[in-house]
Here is the input.
Amino acid sequence: MSARLPALSERFGLPQDASRQLERLLDLVVSDPVAPTALRDPDGVVDLHIADALVGLELDAVTKARRIADLGAGAGFPGLVLAVALPAARVTLVESTARKCAFIERAVGEMALANADVVHARAEAWAAGLGACDVVTARAVAPLNVLVEYAAPLLRDGGALVAWKGQRDRREEADGAAAAEATGLRLAEVRPVRPWEGAHSLHLHLYLKVGSTPNRFPRRAGMASKRPLRASERV
Here is the structure.
């Protein structure tokens, strides 16, 4: 077992079996040639994928959630890691690419995760998730304004979007604020995080659902990125 995984388990107060489950995920990502990530170095996977996912636990909205949707789940981060950390929560990993879904489904089985499931769909087309989620997560998926539009229809009243981002971008944040205003969300916090020693310029953007999302959302598939909601060009 990687010596770094028990340290992460201790840091974030993870359940007793978490280190073993995360070790299995690490093995899959490193050894499976079809794992949908270019990162194969074990230490890199621990830092850039597992530790990076776990910093979401610094937000109360995440630790208290009972239904989480991870959009654009890719190789399963942060969704699989949050499912390990929060066994009382139901985590749905939403991914539009079939081969990525197949990998995530294999990981769910190998990790013996009883609280995770995979949905092969675009976020805009996932009708079963509408208004049903306490938290929506997204990491390395899209600009903030697009993420806000994806998440808003899926969130229950009072729910939260948590977006993993790097260095702050004033223009992107302004567009995110415009999208939030249009969809019933509000930016509550941008939290600097340090998942591993030496990490820098990493942030969690927390949006809360404070109003109703208009019925015109979700727009049809692809429209959020093709015709994104934007702030004034003067920003």
In short: The first helix runs from residue 4 to 12. The chain has one domain: 4-211.
